[in-house]
Amino acid sequence: MSSETVINVQGLTKSFDGKTVVNGLNMEIKKGEIYGFLGPNGSGKTTSIRMLCGLLKPDAGSGSCLGYDVINESELIKPHVGYMTQKFSLYEDLTIRENLDFTARVFGLENPTKIVTDCIERMALGPFEKQLAGNLSGGWKQRLSLGACTLHSPKLLLLDEPTAGVDPGARRDFWDQVHTLASQGITALISTHYMDEAERCHRLAYIAYGNLLASGTVEEMIHDSELVTWNVAINNGENALHTLSEQLKPLPAIDQVVAFGNTLHVSGRDPVLLEKAIAPFQRPPFEWTLIETSLEEVFIDLMQQSKDGLK
Amino acid sequence: MRLFSFKRFAAMVGKEFVQMRRDRLTFGMMVGIPLMQLVLFGYAINSDPRHLPTAVLSADNSAYSRSIVTGMQTSTFFDITHYPKTRAEARQLIDEGRIQFTVTIPENFGRDLLRGDKPILLLEADAADPQATGGASKSFPEIVRRALQKDLTGPNAKLNQSEPPVDIRIHNDYNPEAITQYNIVPGLMGVILTMTLVMITSLAITKESERGTMEHLLSTPIRPLEVMLGKIVPYIFVGYIQITLITLAAKFLFDVPMHGSIALVFAFSVVFIAANLSVGVTISTIVRNQLQAVQMSMFFFLPSLMLSGFMFPFLGMPKWAQGIGSVLPLTHYLRLIRGIMLKGNGFAESIHHLWPILLFWCIVVVIGLKRYRKTLD
Predict the structure, then answer these.
(1) Which residues 235-264 of chain A have a CB within 8 Å of chain B?
(2) Fewer CB within 10 Å, N- or C-terminus of chain A?
(3) Per the domain annotation, does B316 fall within a domain?
(4) Nearest to residue A225, comparing CAs of A271, A184, A178?
(5) Virtual CA dihedral for A80, A66, A49, A71, nearest 10 degrees?
(6) CA-to-CA separations, B229 to A75, B178, B289, in angstroms, rounded
(7) 3-class DSSP state for residue B263?
(8) Do residues A298 and A225 lie in contact, with contact meaning Cβ atoms separated by under 8 Å?
(9) A99 touches chain B (CB under 8 A)
(10) What is the pLDDT of residue B269?
């Protein structure tokens, strides 16, 4: 991985009708990185991505994307960026090949027919080549979209929740493709709600209500959260677990209690206070074990903090 | 389950009202279109046109010829707008559609009148649209009789007694049998092109944003002008298919005479087609959904239909309506097409009907490009 910076923006801000959607976003992404962009719904992820690829004009802020100025040179950025929209945005009344062919020509590629044929082969779209895009299932639509946004060999991929509503198998295939592209030096910025996907990114950023709350690698983010997590298992009686969770939730030392099937995850920021708080409950039938905090707990924690911050 | 639940029904009605309120433009059009129809039908349209521009080609300067001209003015049917010097000049005025009538008063009209020689008074009408000239032509003999009645007094009063003292001849040029199809069918060409082409393209960009494909398009390097022209060109072919069909129908179904060059019709039509398509594309940069696009097309189509001289004689409309009509491309296209088909106009007589359409087109394209959103803002 080289240390060349692909995206470097400071203070990107955008408001709609007086409501600030993105508030002073700073971001630095290096070449070949897969950068995960996380945050609750309506947190400004899509708006940020649209500003980076020139679909929206930032109200304030500065920076560069692929060496071009994000404010004034968006027309120069476009040819090098592959943008995959959250909602399917290819033509439903065109076939797979026609869609790819159109996109290739709009980007002004030399020898579009060959490029499209290569793409169909690479994305294994061959059997559906002549099908109308509108008739494809979610997974295949997403595959076609990825194909379309990589046709012009972009240097930067902006993928906005590319795997929403897609089955796990297709998601895995999708991520394999993204890693292959990254290994070829393409940088990718991907927004997602899936924790397993977040863990497949090189680095992450967490944004909520327009503010960047945390960023770093998975390990860094877990470490920085300073959360300690206990796992509570029970041999029988799920109701007892539910009652326990209700009892634990109001305790000030406990930040979150999450049910995972027949177990509970109990997390808190201060290990000493946490241990004190749970001591009365460390009795049969409950089995308490200290476990590693997962990314999901970190994100729920961040989300709660940002909500508290709003109040 | 009851067959009809008032609660369910009320829920549906309530939801429709909420949606109607959200879609302001659609609601505005629902109010605006009837209002426009009311004004157009009520004020602009006049099936008994008056104040028709008339040229007087007079070789006589007697009191009698002056009385006739004054009589024509006061009748309100005729507005004497031109005094051409030669026949050729008068001819050109009528060919270009600047006047509706030419009155020719021969040399020694007054002298011959007094002698009882019954001089010839010629009224030539551009009767391509029989509706426009009918009323005025019909009243012309009576107008002349009354005008002379006042002058022929004393010893000359006897001329009033018998048959009219003047030999009034009325020539209905271009459409002597007053067959309305001759006028309507070439006009329909323009009307059909306006209606279909504006509607089709007004849906063009709206469709892209409604289906979400606009976002994909905007993320590519494609430029607004490329999008606009790209949307227009395929429909130019559609326009030509329509023109071909209508000319064939005009010839074989309606027997409309074709005095001019069909090649000229095809060549000049491209500007008109492109202008209409651009109106459509520009509409689609303004509206938010397909329903609004259709409504706004109607908003353009209605005045085109009524104020262009297709349905009602242009020169018979009030001045403000003529003013609006002169902006619309259909007005000029109708003159162009009727001129070529019915009057046999050539390139020179037709070209000046083309400039206003061209100008209109340019302005519409500029508005469209300004309105085209390069971002999703």
Answers:
(1) none
(2) C
(3) yes
(4) A271
(5) -110
(6) 20, 42, 21
(7) helix
(8) yes
(9) no
(10) 92
Q: Is residue B240 part of a domain?
A: yes
Mean pLDDT on A153-176:
88
Say what the pLDDT of residue A97 is: 92
Give pLDDT, residue B55: 92
The partner residue sitting opposite B219, judged by closest CB among A55, A87, A108, is A55
User: Which residues in chain A are closer than 8 Å to B231, comparing Cβ atoms?
Assistant: none
Mean pLDDT of chain B: 86
Considering the domain architecture, whether residues B219 and B334 belong to the same structural domain is answered as yes
Q: How confident is the model at residue A148 (pLDDT cuts 50, 70, 90)?
A: very high
The pLDDT tens digits for A201-241 are 999 998 888 788 888 888 888 888 888 888 888 877 667 88
Q: What pLDDT, in 10s, does the model give residues B234-272?
A: 889 889 998 999 888 888 888 888 888 889 999 999 999
Cβ atoms of A226 and A298 closer than 8 Å? no
Is residue B153 located within the same domain as residue B230? no
- Mean pLDDT calculated for residue range A264-281: 85
User: Is any Cβ of chain B less than 8 angstroms from the Cβ of A130?
Assistant: no
Q: Is B286 among the domain residues?
A: yes
Contacts of A57 in chain B (CB under 8 A): 375, 377
Residues of B in contact with A106 (CB under 8 A): 217, 220-222
CATH number at residue B120: 3.40.1710.10
Q: Are A156 and A7 in contact (CB under 8 A)?
A: yes
Contacts (Cβ under 8 Å, ≥6 apart) of B147: B67, B68, B70, B71, B72
Is A79 an 8 Å CB contact of chain B? yes
Structural domain count, chain B: 2
pLDDT band for position B48 (cuts 50, 70, 90): confident
Residues of B in contact with A103 (CB under 8 A): 216, 220
* Domain-located, residue B15: no
Residue B214 clears pLDDT 70, i.e. is over it: yes
B215 vs A107: CB contact, 8 Å cut-off?
no
Q: Which domain holds residue B104?
A: 52-173
Identity of the residue numbered B212:
G
- Contact indicator for A26, A11 with CB cutoff of 8 Å: yes
d(CA B63, CA B109): 10
Query: Do the Cβ atoms of A57 and B375 come within 8 Å?
Result: yes
* DSSP letter (8 states) at residue B127: T
The predicted pLDDT at position B363 comes to: 93
Give me the pLDDT at residue A102, please.
Answer: 92
Higher pLDDT, A60 or A165: A60
Instruction: Out of A50, A91, A107, name the one closest to residue B220 (CB).
Output: A107
Tell me the one-letter amino acid at A48: S
Q: Domain A228-292, CATH 3.30.70.260 — does that match? A: no
With CA atoms as reference, the chain A residue closest to B215 would be A89
Q: What is the CATH number of domain A5-217?
A: 3.40.50.300
Residue with tokens 């930032």: A58
The CA distances from residue A290 to A196, A220, A229, in Å, are 22, 19, 6
Q: Do A50 and B376 touch (CB under 8 A)?
A: yes
Indicate yes or no: CB of B220 within 8 angstroms of CB of A75. Answer: no
Q: Do B220 and A53 touch (CB under 8 A)?
A: no
Does the distance separating the beta carbons of A56 and B376 come in below 8 Å? yes
Q: Testing the interface with A: which of B210, B217, B218 to mutate, by most A Cβ within 10 A?
A: B218
Is there a contact between B377 and A91 if contact means CB atoms under 8 Å apart? no
Q: In this structure, are residues B26 and B37 in contact, taking their beta carbons and an 8 Å threshold?
A: no
Q: What band does A2 get if pLDDT is binned at 50, 70 and 90?
A: very low
In whole angstroms, give the CA distance from residue A70 to residue A58.
9
Q: Which of B154, B173, B192 is where one domain is finished?
A: B173
Cβ contacts below 8 Å, chain A against chain B, sum to: 49
